[in-house]
Write a structure and sequence with these properties.
Radius of gyration: 22 Å
Strand content: 15-25%
Low-confidence stretches: none
Strand order of the largest sheet: 22-23-1-24
CATH class of the largest domain: Alpha Beta
Structural class: alpha/beta
Bound molecules: ligand EPZ
CATH topology of the largest domain: UDP-n-acetylglucosamine1-carboxyvinyl-transferase, Chain
Number of domains: 2
Mean pLDDT: 97
């Protein structure tokens, strides 16, 4: 299995370009099958998750032409099936966006039921509640969700919890419904706004995305468009914390500073300097950083997808920090791996109590999930000695060219296929 091998200790210095937002891309790819006209999607991140969703789209008859590494042309003029099977859902849960897209366009969809995953049970009751409110008959049996409707009709839907997935999925289904839909207690993440803007560029009538009330007036049909995906807030945040944990100085290009406000605020709180301009920002961590407390919250609060990265950084900061995970119930699985590197962290329920230590030691560790894996890379970059990280396929689901981007900043990091590659790396770096 492929591994990352890293020799820590180098401050990361230089410039890095951020790619398109994975979690916007998944909603936008699904939405692109809602028209028979050609759709061009630009700034698409080249990661495993988007690759799998494209395969799911192709499995129902969609033609997807790759124009270049970050641009595809989607033609959903000849959809031959409304079924998305288990194979895709097992690889990425967000294949369930095809439910909202196919139901919205064809009044029918059969999608495998997503299970829980490494960070929690992740129910989809709010998705199903929204589809039923629009008039769909939704049955769950034998591991499949079957949704059918004579005609979807707009309704007033109140989300019991703030959920990105359900907000996007219900928005997809409501776009072509008859009449008006209001989604209350909607998620406000930048990627929710990006999917709404994409749909509006196809002729949809969606207002209020980015607030907690989204108003959708159903339209007859959607037309083709050319659309560029927003920069990835979480990839950007990960590199911001890479500067902090390695006491580096990184300029992060192609970002929207507004989307990073909660992340920048925390970095300033622990002692980093941040210089912002309209599409880039610079993070400088010149001295030992200090502790803070953080609680993950829906946007614009501190993102849960940045929780492992800040906790890992705080484990090397002066003093005691407290990190509270309020979104998912099992998102501290990486703490055991950090403890093997010398971290002093105690997890009690959904809270981690972190006593800062002076340094980490390199170790052999494994990535339990996507963002935890990225955090373990940060730990390895700051550690003394060599770290080998297993199960990197999780990380490559959401980070394009991660070793190459880190190496361009001065990291000693490579992807190894064999133990021999690891030995060669060790000889090279000394
Ligand atoms: C999206 O997951 C992201 N994934 C996640 O990023 C992210 O962590 C999460 O939003 C929160 O920001 C994608 O966009 C593909 P939710 P999603 O529905 O939509 C509960 C990454 O690393 N809930 O906002 O599945 C749920 O259990 C991934 O890129 C219900 O109770 O998250 C959770 O506690 C990891 N019922 C909370 O809501 C539902 O029907 C938020 O979940 C749906 C969700």
């Amino acid at each position: 299995m492929e591994q990352y091998v890293i020799k820590g200790g180098n401050p990361l210095v230089g410039e890095v370009e951020i790619g398109g937002a994975k979690n916007a891309a998944l909603g936008i790819l699904a939405a692109s099958v809602m028209t028979s006209d050609p759709v061009i999607i630009e700034n698409l991140p080249d990661v495993k998750d988007t690759e799998v969703l494209i395969q799911a789209m192709q499995s129902v008859g969609t033609i997807v032409e790759r124009i270049d590494r970050h641009t595809v042309k989607v033609i959903a003029a000849n959809i031959t099936s409304f079924t998305i099977d288990d194979g895709f859902i097992k690889k990425i849960r967000a294949s369930y966006y095809m439910l909202g897209a196919l139901l919205g366009r064809f009044n029918e969809a059969d999608v495998a039921l997503p299970g829980g995953c490494n960070i929690g049970s992740r129910p989809i009751d709010q998705h199903l509640k929204g589809f039923r409110a629009l008039g769909a008959k939704v049955e769950v049996s034998r591991g499949m969700i079957s949704a059918k409707a004579d005609n979807l009709v707009g309704n007033h839907i109140y989300m019991d919890v703030v959920t990105v997935g359900a907000t996007i999925n219900v928005m997809l289904a409501a776009t072509l419904a008859t009449g008006k839909t209001i989604i209350e207690n909607a998620a406000k993440e930048p990627h929710v706004v990006d999917v709404a803007n994409f749909l509006n560029s196809m002729g949809a009538n969606i207002k209020g995305a980015g607030t907690d009330v989204i108003r959708i007036r159903g339209v007859e049909k959607l037309h083709g468009t050319t659309y560029s995906i927003i920069p990835d807030q979480i990839e950007a945040g990960t590199f911001m914390f890479a500067a902090a944990i390695t006491k580096g100085d990184i300029t992060i290009r192609n970002i929207i500073p507004k989307h990073l406000e909660s992340i920048s605020a925390k970095l300033i709180e622990i002692g980093c300097e941040i210089e912002e301009s309209d599409d880039c920002l610079r993070v400088v961590a010149a001295r030992r950083l200090s502790s803070t407390h953080v609680k993950t919250l829906p946007y614009p609060g501190f993102p849960t997808d940045m929780q492992p990265q800040i906790a890992t950084t705080l484990a090397l900061c002066e003093g005691t920090s407290i990190v509270t995970e309020s979104i998912f119930e099992n998102r501290f699985k990486y703490v055991g791996e950090l403890q093997r590197m010398g971290a002093n962290i105690k997890v009690e329920g959904n809270t981690a109590i972190i006593q800062g230590v002076d340094s980490f030691c390199g170790a052999s560790i494994s990535a339990p999930d996507l963002r935890a894996g990225a955090a373990l890379v940060l730990a390895a970059l700051a550690a003394e000695g060599i770290t080998v990280i297993e199960d990197i396929e999780y990380i490559e689901r959401g980070y394009e060219d991660f070793p190459e981007k880190m190496s361009s900043l001065g990291a000693l990091m490579e992807k190894a296929q064999t133990d021999r590659d690891i030995q060669k790396f060790k000889l090279k770096v000394g």
